[in-house]
Amino acid sequence: MINKKAQMNFEVIFAIIVGGMILFLAIYGAMRFSDSSRKQTDTEVAKKLSVLTNPMQAGFAESQSSKIIFNQETKLYNYCFAERFGKNDIAIATKSSVGEEWNVPGNKIAIYNKYLFSEDIQQGKELWIFSKGFEFPYKVADLIFLSMNRYCFVTDRSSKKIAEEVTSLKIENIKITESIENCSEEEIKVCFGTKSGCEIEVFGSGEGDAYSEGYVQKDGKRMYYYGSLMYGAIFTNKEIYDCEVQRLLYRDARLAEIYLGKADLMNARGCNTNIVEDLKILSINLGNASADDFLKLKESVKALDKKAKTELCRTW
Amino acid sequence: MQDMVKAQLKIQQMAFMIVAVFFFFLLIGMAYLSYQFASVKTKYADLQKEEAIRSLETLTNMPELSCSESFLCIDEDKLYALSVKGGYDELWPVASIKVYKIYPSFKGSTQVKCPDANCNYYLVYDSGQKSVEEYASFVSLCKKVREGGYTYNKCEIGKLAVGVKLTAIEEE
């Protein structure tokens, strides 16, 4: 006699195996689908970020500030490439409570005509953006500073202008104080001039406006700056900073060629300018320069700017 | 024996049902995916359009084109230099940039490209893409002149036309 109760029906075994396979495929498919949906959303956010930063190219305004709030905790990736005009690639990854906490970042969005200064990877829910024009000696571009961190600027009398500028721009993630004790733990401390004990230190060497030029000491590395590049050095790391400076110098050299063409046309119709030779030299020097040559060019740029501003027919 | 035939029939019935259900969900999945792809393409095109419209202001403010002193103003001397030189292709966020002289209007209906004599439009950049959608904005077209001992900006009315760039998203 065969005990049928102890035996498993073939139909049941078949249903369990096939059912299990279907269930596995369904779960696997749903997970893959959820991953690709996240990637799609992240790519869309990166593209939107690229579009949203368009008005941040300050134009005639000297500087602008803004804030973007994400729906959930977000990682922002910033890659810089310096060849010719170069580009910034940005990518976004969002945190999820389902599946893996952090997905691989969405597709990279290439931005060619903007200069984004930020850490290579930063994380947060709020992104503070502000922009400031960069002149060397004419306007080269609007630099865009992106940060998800909070900063505490410890200023002294010599850096009063910086404090006033940050206050007037209402940059929410930068606190201005005269004493390091007023900074909180989570804030990144930035010391100006005589103040010390900060993660980042800024030393100005400009005449008149002390912080119009100088260097920023960060992570044991020194980044020389001119004008608004000071904020770039504060908000980014040395690799991205050097890359952006390299891109700016290339664009500067190409702009010198345009101004040369303009100067020739102006001279031809009697609106004379005397800076043609200086522009030729500047164009060659900028074309061969790297981020390390930045300091050497500063003096000739300042001299050219002074000369250009005294002319009746000003080229810029 | 009869039991075995019955069981085989049931297995066949179940197998057919499973295959049918599988194909049903596969079709639903494919329909949803094609809808998703279409919506991604539409969203991408919308963002590109939005970028092109915003680019009108961005371009007039770019130092390669802008006058130093005024808003929504293009420097004609820079335009001339750019249309002769080129080499800025990767910098422009759009597919094409043209600047037309509108007023004082050019006599005659033909378009003459600058820097030719009596020209009426500048072609700053053309990516060569077909099916480019154009968006335009009126701008001041100025150049610096010196007359009677005075230096001033001599301006005309121009139209800046940009085309939407249809580039693919870079794969990681």
Describe this structure in words.
The complex is a heterodimer of chains A (316) and B (172). With 316 residues, chain A is α/β, with parallel strands linked by helices. Chain A has helices at residues 10-52, 160-169, 229-235, 238-268, 276-288, 294-309, and strands at residues 63-81, 87-94, 109-111, 115-117, 121-135, 139-147, 151-154, 174-177, 188-192, 200-204, 213-218, 221-226. In chain A, strands 3-2-1-5-6-4 form a six-stranded mixed sheet. In chain A, strand 10 (200-204) and strand 11 form a beta hairpin. In chain A, helix 4 packs antiparallel against helix 5 (276-288) and helix 5 packs antiparallel against helix 6. The mean pLDDT of chain A is 89. Chain B has two helices and five strands, in the order H-E-H-E-E-E-E. In chain B, strands 1-4-5-2-3 form a five-stranded mixed sheet. Classes of the chains: A alpha/beta (316), B alpha+beta (172). The interface between A and B is large, with 56 and 50 residues.
Which properties best describe this structure?
heterodimer, A: 316 residues, alpha/beta, six-stranded mixed β-sheet, 6 helices, 38% helix, B: 172 residues, alpha+beta, five-stranded mixed β-sheet, disordered C terminus
Q: How is this fold's topology laid out?
A:
The complex is a heterodimer of chains A (316) and B (172).
Chain A: H1 10-52, E1 63-81, E2 87-94, E3 109-111, E4 115-117, E5 121-135, E6 139-147, E7 151-154, H2 160-169, E8 174-177, E9 188-192, E10 200-204, E11 213-218, E12 221-226, H3 229-235, H4 238-268, H5 276-288, H6 294-309
Parallel strand pairs in A: 4-6, 7-8, 7-9, 9-10
Antiparallel strand pairs in A: 1-2, 1-5, 2-3, 5-6, 10-11, 11-12
Chain B: H1 2-61, E1 73-75, H2 76-85, E2 96-103, E3 121-126, E4 134-147, E5 150-163
Parallel strand pairs in B: 1-4
Antiparallel strand pairs in B: 2-3, 2-5, 4-5
